[in-house]
């Protein structure tokens, strides 16, 4: 069995543990992720939902169309998102991981929304839209691809 990957919010009121290796690690440049994180680009670590266990009682949710984002209700740290169109998957904010350097992104998503002053000179694949196709053709922010 793989060693557990742990993380949580800034104040420690929300903690989580993933019992397996992630299936997805990526950057996202979409406007919805920018607003949710407050950063010019977000990075996510994707796991199968049943492989992640949360502890603490401060986890809060915000729903926006098919996407539900979680955050700490005390310190406000963004934690994760789930998309109802991607059953059984959860995407944890890379910055919420205890060992974020372990999770190296493998591609960029929504680069058509990348801020013009943000330069990330890596050789990773770049997707104009989502890097995780939704079965109904919608993007992660609820609009059509």
UniProtKB/TrEMBL annotation:
Which family is it part of?
A: Belongs to the Gfa family.
Q: Which Pfam families match?
A: GFA (PF04828)
Q: What is this protein called?
A: Glutathione-dependent formaldehyde-activating protein
Q: Which domain of life is it from?
A: Bacteria
The record's keywords, sorted A to Z, are: Lyase, Metal-binding, Zinc
Please indicate if the UniProt record lists GTP-binding as a keyword. Answer: no
Q: Name one GO molecular function term.
A: metal ion binding
Tell me the ranges covered by the CENP-V/GFA domain, including all copies: 5-103
Please indicate if the UniProt record lists tRNA processing as a keyword: no
SUPFAM superfamilies assigned to the protein according to its UniProt record, in alphabetical order? Mss4-like
